[in-house]
Amino acid sequence: MWVFRVLQKLPRSLNQPQQQEIEKLMQSSRGSLKEFPCIPYPKGHVLEQLDEQNKIYDKIMLAVLKQKGGVFFLHGYGGKGKTFMWRTLASSLRSNHEIVLTVATSGIASLLL
Ligand SMILES: Nc1ncnc2c1ncn2[C@@H]1O[C@H](COP(=O)(O)OP(=O)(O)OP(=O)(O)O)[C@@H](O)[C@H]1O
């Protein structure tokens, strides 16, 4: 695989921002540096994603619980956690006895929610 050959040639002394950037590129094509033990995995990458998800969660929950309403559009590369976010929000609200109706533009997409 050409990606593996390229990664093996990279210096082991990549700095954090370089590792983060490579991880983002890898994730955009459903890969991850985790598959390549020869390259250090960027520290804090998962925490950064969790922090971002926490902010989204708080923002949407606040709008719902304060009955402010709103339209929210989550976008990001594949595997970034968009579906996870919607499912988490729906579960959280349902556990508080709220009614959540999920709709999607296709039957296949609706199965994911
Ligand atoms: N905070 C999290 N904690 C644990 N697992 C998570 C978290 N966020 C995402 N994941 C996991 O990461 C994987 C990818 O997430 P998800 O399917 O939500 O991405 P997506 O952005 O909807 O991808 P796609 O655009 O390809 O549909 C899933 O297995 C999901 O369970």
Protein model, in words:
The chain is mainly alpha-helical and 113 residues long. It has two domains: 2-35, no CATH class; 46-112, no CATH class. It is 55% helix and 0% strand. Helix 3 (45-65) packs across helix 4 (82-95). The longest helix is centred in the middle third of the chain and has 21 residues, at 45-65. The radius of gyration is 18 Å and the shape is elongated. The mean pLDDT is 83. Bound molecules: adenosine-5'-triphosphate. Adenosine-5'-triphosphate (ATP) binds at residues 50, 53, 76, 78-84. It comes from Medicago truncatula. Belongs to the helicase family. Its EC number is 5.6.2.3.
Looking at this protein, list some descriptive labels.
DNA_helicase_pif1-like_DEAD, 113 residues, elongated, binds adenosine-5'-triphosphate, hydrolase, DNA recombination, mainly alpha
Short description:
Helices cover 55% and strands 0% of the residues. The chain is mainly alpha-helical and 113 residues long. The model has no long low-confidence stretch (mean pLDDT 83).
* Helix coverage percent: 40-55%
Mean pLDDT: 83
Low-confidence stretches: none
The number of helical elements comes to 5
Largest sheet: none
C-alpha end-to-end distance: 34 Å
Shape: elongated
**Strands, total number:** 0
Structural class: mainly alpha
Tell me which ligands are bound.
adenosine-5'-triphosphate
- The number of distinct structural domains comes to 2
Approximately how much beta-strand content do the residues carry? Answer: under 5%
Order of helices and strands: HHHHH
Give me the Rg, rounded.
Answer: 18 Å
